[in-house]
Design brief:
Two copies of one chain form a homodimer.
Chain A (H helix, E strand, L loop, with lengths): L12 H13 L9 H11 L4 H4 E3 L3 H10 L3 E4 L2 H6 L2 H5 L5 E3 L4 H10 L3 H17 L14 E5 L3 H12 L7 E4 L7 H10 L5 E4 L6 H14 L2
Helix pairs in contact in A: 1-2, 2-11, 7-8, 8-9, 9-10
């Protein structure tokens, strides 16, 4: 074997990785309280662009942690992100992870409306939200109903539909993790989420992101909880 | 809405994305026959580094396609990659996707041997290979047994163990997709795979890669098949 391996115990690999990331970030200023999220995105991609492109709305980390603690569930737009999110940890607080992308009713609705399955799956999430948040005997939302966190790693069309649902008053997410990746309307859809002043958000500005980034931001939040 | 969206039909989004990638690659020379793999990696990450860091062993695309056609299965080191691989398409040729990372016997073996679960899961794959490839009445491998493709998107320790198993003659993969991401032994483990002259490989040289890249290379190969 010509190659020299660094001797690191299995349990120490992640710690050592974060040390290297911290070293290489050097003097780079990160928004206080968001460091673990930024570093985990770099850890999951080996891409230091995430030190520059992540945008956090005011107090979003505290709000997100509070939402998870209150039992918020996560809706995502890919089975990959669902697979990557630490579902056991989330379940400790009562939440679960939903992905409606493979559901038959979603495929049907998308076909009928000439939209994407990702957009249709946001409509399905909004229906679930209405059903869980409304007490049929009263007007408006029940204040004690656990909310929804959206972790969008693939489809800008999901973000566009979320924006519309929020503008129409049909949905008020606890948090939008807006990190789709790609080339068609990805940049624009993220800017739309940044316009929503009353919706906490974590956005990877620009083209980059992905299911791995969506899952890793969820996990970073979960691992920050004591 | 201040943001201007590009009008693209749902069914056209991927095609338009690949057009943009092709435009931006410009005069960049890609190895003939590998273009769709490189472009899909860029599509899944918005990271043009994949135009430079992917290394293909001689004739690997033809060999990989042939292996899939013969019914090869895929072993991966993350549930995320397993979730992302087009299992329906693979099943058309008889293969399936395995990930042993959450298996109890793997966790036990890793604990006992002081190794990672990723390394222990490669041992489990090698056992499966031996059991399926050997005819107990004969010496050596059965030539008609469908082989294994390894898609490693996370753990360099999986690659190191694969290297050892191959050197010990316990495993001969049809293909290794060596694209773990990270900072500890990632670069080195990929160089080890590049040393294996008789093992077809697709390697993302350097730190970059990930479960998304592992899945996307598998899918690129599947989508190239007619």
């Amino acid at each position: 074997m010509k190659t020299e391996l660094e001797q690191v115990l299995p349990a120490e690999i992640e710690k050592r990785s974060f040390e290297i990331i911290t070293e290489e970030l050097g003097e780079k200023k990160l928004l206080p309280g968001t460091e673990l999220i930024v570093k985990r995105c770099i850890h999951t991609s080996a891409d230091f662009d995430y030190a520059d492109n992540l945008v956090f709305s005011d107090g979003v980390v505290e709000k997100a942690v509070q939402a998870i603690r209150s039992g918020a569930s996560i809706v995502t737009d890919t089975q990959m992100a669902k697979a990557g999110i630490n579902k056991k940890k989330l379940a400790e607080y009562g939440g679960q992870v939903y992905c409606f992308m493979s559901d038959e009713d979603v495929a049907e609705a998308a076909g009928k409306n000439g939209t994407t399955r990702a957009a249709a799956s946001m409509d399905k999430a909004a229906e679930m939200y209405r059903a869980s948040a409304h007490d049929p005997s009263e007007e408006g939302m029940r204040k004690d109903s656990p909310g929804l966190i959206f972790a969008i790693g693939n489809a800008p069309t999901a973000l566009v539909r979320l924006y519309e649902l929020i503008q129409e008053g049909k949905l008020q997410p606890e948090l939008i993790i807006a990190v789709p990746v790609g080339f068609v309307n990805v940049v624009q859809s993220k800017e739309m989420i940044l316009e929503l002043k009353d919706t906490p958000s974590i956005v990877a500005r620009g083209r980059k992101g992905g299911s791995n980034i969506a899952a890793c931001i969820c996990n970073a939040l979960l691992y920050m909880m004591k």
